[in-house]
Design brief:
The protein is 45% helix and 11% strand. The protein is elongated and about 110 Å long. Among the domains are: 2-43; 57-92, no CATH class; 102-161, no CATH class. The chain is mainly α and 199 residues long. The chain has a two-stranded parallel sheet. Strands 3-4 form a two-stranded antiparallel sheet. It has seven helices and four strands. Helix 2 (11-27) packs antiparallel against helix 3 (32-43). It holds the Pfam family HTH_animal. This is Helix-turn-helix domain-containing protein. Residues 1-39 form the Helix-turn-helix domain. InterPro entries: HTH_animal. Residues 171-183 have a biased composition (Basic residues).
């Protein structure tokens, strides 16, 4: 705390701040001798003032041989020389970094909005296209399981099938997760028994 007070406070407020630190430490049970000796030791440390650079300063692009010559000349004549890298044609024209298109970048956060206004936000280490295909495959597995559960035949191609038409619609279960298991009616049991008898 004393270091902070010495580095931040102006000279006119420093004595008041040091008294406040003493009072706070005394009230928290620190011994008087310890607090006083630490504050005295910290305030008696001589401050080393850095000398500001005298003379003119030159900033030049660095060239081998000539740069060292200017540096030596600056020491003898009393000016300081700093070097910077020069802009070259290479820095303007050459770009070593390959730019990956946004759809091929791995590690994306994505949002899928369903037709029923539900949305799913996810994060993947794969590319967006690969993750989208994984979602479509999962949706197709779900739809095939639903069709199999209901005993229907698949009427159209899967979602990622290239033969799929734009206008086809599929029946959708409202709600989340798998649909509830359909209760078998008397007719369903009758159909199953007939199928077993024909085999």
């Amino acid at each position: 705390m004393v270091d902070r007070a010495l580095s931040i406070c102006d000279a006119e407020f420093l004595d008041g701040e040091l008294r406040y630190i003493k009072r706070t430490l005394y009230s928290n049970g620190y011994p008087n001798n310890l607090v006083s000796s630490v504050i005295r030791r910290m305030t008696n440390i001589p401050t080393i003032a850095r000398q500001k650079e005298q003379g003119p300063v030159m900033v030049l692009p660095y060239y081998t041989g000539i740069g060292e010559l200017f540096k030596r000349l600056g020491k003898t004549l009393g000016f300081t020389v700093y070097f910077k890298t020069s802009c070259s044609l290479c820095t303007f024209l050459r770009n070593d970094k390959m730019k990956v298109p946004p759809d091929e970048r791995p590690g994306v956060v994505y949002k899928i909005t369903c037709g029923c206004n539900a949305s799913y936000i996810g994060e993947t280490g794969n590319t967006l296209l690969r993750r989208f295909n994984q979602h479509v495959d999962a949706l197709n597995r779900y739809k095939r399981a639903l069709i199999k559960l209901n005993g229907q035949q698949q009427t159209g191609p899967d979602l990622n099938d290239p033969q799929r038409d734009e206008g086809t619609t599929t029946t959708r279960h409202k709600g989340r997760g798998r649909p509830p298991k359909k209760k078998q009616t008397y007719e369903d049991r009758e159909i199953q028994q007939r199928q077993w008898q024909t085999r």
